[in-house]
Design a protein that fits this description.
Length: 91
């Protein structure tokens, strides 16, 4: 006969109780970690949505996209275009 315990007998084995309890603790820790990751992921998603909205708002603002007359204006507009491209994933 095999040394393996069958369903009714396995719950009488103290080693089985400790192993099962540890599995429950491990599963609870994994669930907690996944919930924390979900909260972080949702916060990051909301932040990206806000950034994309700001990019869209600035893209429609004629005061930011005029023809630059000075080097400093051109420099700032180029930096703004690079920032928009990076945020929108076009960089």
């Amino acid at each position: 006969m095999s040394a393996r315990l069958h369903w009714p007998d396995c719950w009488r084995d103290p080693a089985h109780h400790a192993c099962a309890a540890q599995k429950v603790v491990d599963a609870q820790a994994e669930i907690k970690m996944l919930r924390e990751r979900l909260v972080t992921t949702r916060a990051l998603r909301n932040h990206v949505i806000d950034l994309l909205g700001l990019c869209e708002e600035q893209a429609l603002d004629d005061g930011l996209w005029f023809v630059a007359e000075h080097a400093t204006e051109a420099y700032l507009q180029a930096a703004l275009r690079r920032l928009h491209a990076a945020i929108e994933g076009d960089a």
